[in-house]
Amino acid sequence: MSSTLDNEPTVSSAVAIPHVSQRSFHNYPGAAYVLPADEQEIERLRQQHNIWKTAFNGKILLPPFKPQSSYFVLDSGSGPAAFLLDLCSQLAQTSVLHGIDIEKRLFPLSHPSNVSFSIASVTSLPDEWTSKFDFVHQRLLFFALKRTEWTLAMDQIHRVLSPGGWVQFGEYGYWHSGPINEKYRQMQNALAESRGFDAKICADLPRLLQKAGFINVTVEKRTVPLGAWAGQVGVDSRNNFISVFAGLKMAVLKAGGLGFVETEEDFDGFTVALQKEWDETEGSEIEFHIVYAQRPN
Ligand SMILES: C[S@@+](CC[C@H](N)C(=O)[O-])C[C@H]1O[C@@H](n2cnc3c(N)ncnc32)[C@H](O)[C@@H]1O
């Protein structure tokens, strides 16, 4: 027989925030990436792919491709490759899909034979890839690339795309709720500033793409609710973003708390308060931006 507790809805149960000592991180020389590279992060990235996919009504590939029998695809900073594996299931088996990342531990252990992976930085792609790919995907490198590295990465993508090929970027835009959210955003911006990341990269992607020589630059935005007020969809996105913030804890503490927190307990308390605010503030939401563009023929 179930108890009353068993029957209580679990939708708003808070996300557990792991201790920093339980997380592991990449050690790729020179890479600025601050989020963890471990099992919990793999699971989070897989769930995050589904949240993005749902927000775009199940569509993961936005550029207006002319139908072709097979495609050469690169996922730049693929992580566990939830996007690439999903795309693979939608393309003919003659397509060739490749993921690169600075962290081998994130790659999936099993995958179809037309999918492969290698270790590389998005800022320095192999010379032999020039004009190779029909499509390049790069999503959520906000906490990875310094301001100047975005230009480098776009130049590399432009080079490895075949003429007429498409690139698709995905990044988070504005997120809003109440005063705790605002303070948290300030902390994230301070972290970005301290590491040389570009806090406004999402809005700047179209301009940078044009500057890199791309044409047909197109932006599509969706908003996703954050918090229990929006039911299960809000809880799922809340859990995912809280896990992103939990992953930033090490970087914030290493930076001395950036004037927002002093101890790990402060950080965890701040994050729990943020969850509560999202749960209780109707209208809390976050924007997803997909920006796609074409290399001229
Ligand atoms: C937030 S995750 C996003 C993963 C994947 N794109 C997705 O949407 O699920 C960022 C990924 O970029 C990788 N990364 C960070 N810096 C990189 C770099 N300089 N070159 C290649 N990959 C990088 C990280 O290891 C991580 O897998």
TrEMBL record:
It comes from the Eukaryota. CDD domains: AdoMet_MTases. It holds the Pfam family Methyltransf_25. InterPro entries: Methyltransf_25, SAM-dependent_MTases_sf. Residues 73-165 form the Methyltransferase domain. PANTHER family: METHYLTRANSFERASE. This is Methyltransferase domain-containing protein. It comes from Phellinidium pouzarii.
